[in-house]
Amino acid sequence: MPTGTLLLIDDETTLRQAISRMLELEGYTVLQAPDARRGLETLRQYAEEVLVVLSDVKLPDGYGLDLLPRYKQVAPLAEVILLTAYGTIPDGVRAMKEGAFDYLTKGDSDDQLVVVVDRAAEKARLQRRVADLEKKVGAQYSFESMIGHSAALTQAKKLAQRAAPTDSTVLLEGPTGSGKELFAQAIHQASARRSKPFVAVNCSAFPKDLLESELFGYRKGAFTGALADKKGLLEEANSGTLFLDEIGELELNVQAKFLRVLETQQFTKLGDTKPTTVNVRIVAATNRNLRQEAELGHFRPDLYYRLSVFTVPVPGLNERREDVDELANYFLQFFAAKLRRRLSGLEPEALDQLRRHDWRGNVRELKNVLERAAILADGDTLTTDDLPAEFHHFAPEPTTDEASDRTLRTMEKRQIRLVLHETGGNKMEAARQLGIGTKTLYRKIQEYGL
Ligand SMILES: Nc1ncnc2c1ncn2[C@@H]1O[C@H](COP(=O)(O)OP(=O)(O)OP(=O)(O)O)[C@@H](O)[C@H]1O
Asked: Suppose 150 and one of 76, 314, 322, 343 were both cysteines; which one would form an S-S bond, judging by CB atoms 3.0 to 4.6 Å apart?
């Protein structure tokens, strides 16, 4: 049985009550109003709940078609069905053109009414679900959800937040793994394009000749193997944002084509004669010094100038060590949830090692270290032993034979757990990688309670 709230606005009391009763029998909660003013008031009050507004076209204080945009304004996720008097079909047709879900003539059968209301309610429910998901995805990639409060990160966030709502091209400069893609996503989410596609492409991930066709697409027959027309990523990102990671890797001829996109929003697909026009916001990223590359002749200076309209330097983790604690704890909780393990925190010494480390791989490296540690941890606190070897400089050596025996057993247990995780629990493969027989592996799994 369908459920949900409807709002019925009609000045004919008998008809209104009859329709209400019928829809209530179908499982709906029906709010009623006799005129536009009270209808809008109720809608404002229950905007979150109302799935469908059923409104008479001719109300004592307003005309349904003029009210349509006002209903939509108050409750953008609700669907509107207009009720027209017999013989006023043109009104209904116009109503649909202007965004009503459908129209019903007052003489229509009850069944017809229920079918249309059910469909409108279903659409409204779906719209709500999509809006919820978008909100969640948006929150995941927002500036607010970015972890770290260091001055360096805060300054970068502020700068990017200023650029976000403009349509300006943004160049993110920072070392690998520092969070440039996260910044690009946050910029997209904070822009008017947030509900449109965000397409990310890593320019270094494609062989040189492939990148051009990936970006711009091609027409059927453009080259051997071009069996059908193919959209490029620029078209996929139309009306949204295209994130070009490692833009320094673009070949010079692709750079020229790309410069044209930035200047005119146009490009010509491989094998095409006519240009294609797109509306795409470009966010680019580089871990190289592009200015220097331009001076050395490896990157087109005109493209560099176009791209660097708004440059945001994304700091590496070594420049913001204050963020290590917060990031480590965040990733610990993240992986604990993912692995369904209870992990409450890091031992002070382990945290100390993390703070001192030279983070050349930046946040990505820290994330990987925490994932590995979360898999290896025996207790509910991460210790230095759970960190990779390069973090063990200050670890005390075991002193007695007994202690070293314990360490070996622990190491074996961890190694087995790690390999089992990496092989997705495939025992044959895990045994092969560990260089032991499957039977031995089963025995050890039982022995260590893995
Ligand atoms: N401030 C942060 N808060 C939470 N997670 C972060 C943060 N910064 C980076 N990360 C995570 O670290 C990883 C690396 O980040 P990202 O891919 O954005 O880096 P990048 O600079 O684009 O790397 P590359 O130059 O290699 O493309 C991602 O998994 C990202 O989610």
From this structure: 322
Ligand 1 neighbourhood includes 177 CB (under 6 angstroms):
yes
Cα 175 to averaged position of ligand 1 atoms, centre (Å): 10
Structural domain of 12 = 5-137
**Facing residues of 62 across strands?**
59
Size (the chain), residues: 450
Euclidean distance between CA atoms 245 and 256, whole angstroms: 17
In a 3-state reduction of DSSP, which class is residue 104? strand
Ligand 1 centroid from CA 201, angstroms: 15
Q: Are residues 74 and 221 in the same domain?
A: no
Mean pLDDT along residues 344-353: 92
| CA angle at 423 for the pair 418 and 425, rounded to the nearest 5° | 85
The predicted pLDDT at position 394 comes to: 47
- The enclosing domain of 94 has a CATH number of 3.40.50.2300
Number of domains comprising the chain: 3
Give 362 Cα–ligand 1 centroid separation in angstroms. 8
Domain boundary among 315, 348, 374: 315
Q: Which of 182, 246, 286, 330 to mutate to test the pocket of ligand 1 (most atoms within 8 A of CB)?
A: 182
- Whether 174 and 311 map to the same domain: the answer is yes
| Distance separating alpha carbons of residues 439 and 422, to the nearest angstrom | 19
CATH code, domain carrying 285 = 3.40.50.300
**pLDDT band per the 50, 70, 90 thresholds, residue 324:** very high
309 and 322 share a domain?
A: no
